[in-house]
Fold each of these.
Amino acid sequence: MINSHWHGDHIRGNQCFKGAVIFSSLATRNKMLEIHPERISDQQASIPQLRKHIKKLETDLARESNPEKKKKVNIQLNFLKEIEKSLPGLEFTLPDLTFEHKMVFTGNSRQAVLQTMGGGHTLCDSFLYLPEEEILFAGDLLFSGTHPNIKDGNPINWLGILQNIKQLSAKVLVPGHGPVSDESAITGMECYLTSLLEMADALHNVEETQIPLRFEAWEAPELFSQNLLFLSQQTFPKNL
Ligand SMILES: [Zn+2]
């Protein structure tokens, strides 16, 4: 079992894999320890407030007639209901074994290479490559057909990592979010990050900025303006 990075949607299932050895990079484990115990206990202490908020959203949803807004509230509601269901029994579970850069698993019939090139999507992102099968499990370094969350990382480093994983020439790419894809998922991600960096550099009003046509059909469109705003506030060079 591998935790590719510290985000809750990638580590909160750890307790279901009792008996399995959980691996992550040392940086990811340290970040999990820094963030999650406090976050989880705060959320567990606020379950009544969460339930109240869910009830309010359900009332809003029943009154809403705009299909776009309805869809948005529904997505939020489904997410919060999952959190509500999981919180009472959630046990924070850390990785058992850590690595710094790379580790190779050699079994009877195949090898698997677990590696990190540092942080892009978060402060440290790991991926797993099966060289014989040419399959890459990319974690959240790849989002396919859905807007990524970029606010915990560094898009410049992210673009550098994508350049490197392209050299693996994997035939099958398994993204952290979205359907299984091929190399086009890397190109899509590069295009997204580059476009947003350019847009952030010339940004006047985030509310008035339209999602570019190429990403218009992507899931989670609410992340677009958040990502753009985040980039416009950063100090790294945005003109590539
Ligand atoms: Zn993530």
Amino acid sequence: MNAKAPQESRTIMTDLVLPSETNPLNNLFGGELLARMDRAAAISARRHSRRIVVTASVNHVAFNSAVPLGSVVTVEAKVSRAFRTSMEVFIDVWIEDRESGARTKANEAIYTFVAVDETGRPVAVPELLPETDLEKERFAAALRRKQLSLLLAGKMKPQDATELKALFE
Ligand SMILES: CC(C)(COP(=O)(O)OP(=O)(O)OC[C@H]1O[C@@H](n2cnc3c(N)ncnc32)[C@H](O)[C@@H]1OP(=O)(O)O)[C@@H](O)C(=O)NCCC(=O)NCCS
């Protein structure tokens, strides 16, 4: 399997915030944003692996800024690292100023997807070769995040989490 660049999985979804998608403060409902991010990230993981993909975990979500009713929201997803069958996908969320068109970063998230066959069994994915400084930074930290996610899910023993132990040495 040939290695791929993050750019090949880049997925951009732009949509409005409508009244049915808001909370009582007239800002975007958190669950709606999670769903939009999941969709964009799933397409990104599928573009990288060219396989059926399933969400294995939501590793991190930061709702740093409220997204007001009527906003134009852009969700941008890219695979940040591929392991054997799993892929970490980084999602950046932007809102666009109506008058100037300037984009402001509102939120970000990190999801993990697993490529599977038609029976749901995990299958191998191509390697990812980061290119830009930001892609290299996200790639380097991804193993630590994978170990943390597995640890929290009870799928890894603390003594096997080498990257996390190294943080405290
Ligand atoms: C995701 C799923 C395929 C993993 O199955 P599994 O039996 O744990 O398979 P494995 O142990 O072989 O793990 C497969 C990969 O997923 C990774 N993984 C599993 N759980 C993970 C977690 N919580 N966080 C990070 N990575 C995880 C493993 O590390 C492994 O990665 P690697 O092959 O790249 O090293 C399985 O749990 C599943 O089908 N879950 C339901 C998915 C779904 O329906 N999602 C939508 C929810 S509504």
